[in-house]
Amino acid sequence: MGPPPGPDVRKAGLHRVFREVSIMMIDVRQVSHPEAVRRYDTEELRRHFLIERLFEPGKVLLTYSHIERFVIGGATPQSVPLKLESDKATIGSPNFLDRRELGVFNIGGPGKVEVDGTTYVLGHRDALYVAQGSKDVHFSSDSPDHPAKFYLLSTPAHHRYETKVVRIAEAKKMDLGDQATANKRSIYQMIHPDVVQSCQLVMGMTQLDAGNMWNTMPCHVHDRRSEVYLYFDLAADARVIHLMGEPDQTRHLVVADGQAILSPPWSIHSGVGTRAYTFIWGMGGDNIDYTDMDMVAMDQLR
Length: 302
Ligand SMILES: O=C(O)C(=O)C[C@H](O)C(=O)CO
Ligand SMILES: [Zn+2]
Description:
mainly beta, Jelly Rolls, 2 domains, 8-stranded mixed sheet, 25 strands, binds ligand LADIRMRS, binds zinc ion, zinc, 4-deoxy-L-threo-5-hexosulose-uronate ketol-isomerase
């Protein structure tokens, strides 16, 4: 794919590879053992679990995580469409989706995703499931003044289901929480077995009501699946304090708008904002059962 890669910091003995290839960049993250994470300082926690760069004008920014072999990314087309290219060193196959499936959520202005010559129109908060085996995927914005921002999450896949748009109105919606506990929110299950067929990818969006700040508290783990959280709809000076770690060894990450969190199977994942926010959760792993969670009792948290 494209010109020769840029500096490969793996050669310098560091834990990750960062390569720059034309308008597409891939950052590789290795997995961390929970016992090692107990000793991580803030900088190490952020380097392993926080994805800070996703949406930059005219770029496709990807992170390849060895947790579930997730690829997490952002495509922000301006006046020129952007192509989702494969990469020999990470994806390995000639086309990105030869052995993968992809979820795309538009969190920006109106735009289009073209898959093998078919155009799918995605408005704000619409999603697209892109089937394994698709060859050409291009992203475009209707207007560079109000560009689309496509959030991407991909997992390995070995069966081809149908590429399908899921509008937010077609999602399976659940209203949860309570104003008294500041966690009143709506969960929109969009790439979910009741809505669209996928191999292992399950995705959706959770929107907090105004004045509510907590997600996923009481919290859970699910050793059978890992999760990725993209936080958005945050003002420039607002933050989400994302809680992670083993239940009796919790840590936190301070997250800004448009940043994502890698949540390993052994980790809790919960967050509290300085104000209401929205996030896209996505999962891969041994099952596609959203309800398969091991709840953590409050007195287990440390
Ligand atoms: O607000 C919530 O609660 C969630 O969105 C929970 C996530 O979807 C989740 O953790 C699913 O495993
Ligand atoms: Zn979860």
